[in-house]
Amino acid sequence: MFYCYNSGLMEDPFIIGSLPRFSQPEIYRTFMTYARSFTMRFLAIGTLIFCCCQNLIAQTTTWIDTTTLTYISKWDTASNSWYNTGRRLATYGLDGEDIDYLVQDGDTISNVWLNYISFTKTDTANKVDLLYKYWDDINAEWTDFNSRKVSNTYDSLGNVIDFSWLNNWDSLAVNWDTLWHYMYHINYNNDSTISSSVTYGYDVSWKKKDSIFNEYFQGWKIGHHYLYDDLNNSWNYSSKDSLTRISDVEKQYFGDISSNFYWRTYYRVEYNDNGDILEHIKHLKDTVSNNWVYCSKRNSTYDIDNHLVDLILANWDITSNTWINYLRETLHNGINTSLKELKFAEFKVYPNPTHDLLNIIFNMRQTGTLRLYNIVGVEVKNIELNDELTSEIYLANLPVGVYVLKLSQKGEPSILRNIIVAK
For residue 86, what is the enclosing H or E element? Predict the structure, then answer.
């Protein structure tokens, strides 16, 4: 017998609008491989989310200087219909890369959108950091509690060579909790395929955890997986995977190394002509019948510009022998009116400090006034907003110092942000 579950990588609601196109499927497969290990599942999820939402996995088409709105829905088996449970607003710059994005939950009781997670990206030389925080409903603010930071470092060819995961910022210790402190290192062959990868966990010092060593043959690949034995200071062979691809169909198998070795998991992936995933089906081996049985799948739809606009996840029901819809993400151009807008307005600014242009991003369309005050309370700038999602203020002509940016709306409390002008 077997137990079928839908992998967290398949369930996580961070896919459309900024996410996977996987025209570098090698990286995607590697993170999916790590997800097979329960202890590394969270690392793989975080890595994949980070790579996708930051466009680190190359895309054939990107969003340019715009904000995308994606709705996350779940399937209601009673009414045989989808109902919205959340949404995500992702903002892109002129270079086609994400600046940041906001995830909100739909509260059907109060009929409003409520903040959930915010993501902000920072680029520094050959490194990209992504910080995400959770919303504190009680204090109506973003909190450092349970916040996370993931970072990617690149080589001169643009390959991701190091990934680190930090979790739970401790404001008292002014440091990150080391419980979920991981580092992931990737080595490449000359043709940019992944030759090996090693994961390290932090416990007083960095310690080896998992590793994968890949062998490539004509038309297929074998991946050898190891777990590190701290006591004997050696690697133990734990599992392996086999991958083949014929035309636009790819097949990958996973199995444990044991006295009764068998392939326990099988993935079938179908691609379109642009290298994007159309269908991804997971199978598990039924050890009683020795047959492959459906487990879960995802189907993707792209628009004429090759943007991923619709993604449906489904689980296989072994009782009825049918696919049961589970989760859906749909890209929308308009604003959903089934729920009212968020009660608490919110906005982000970047870069801060700045010496030139200050960019402002709102979590919902704003009509009101932005006012900038100097340290003695004199208004030095103001901008009228008319149903805006973004705005900007030119600060190059202002003296160096600390300023206060104030968002004023009719009938709503004002929101303040400290702005630092530097040269």
Answer: strand 81-92
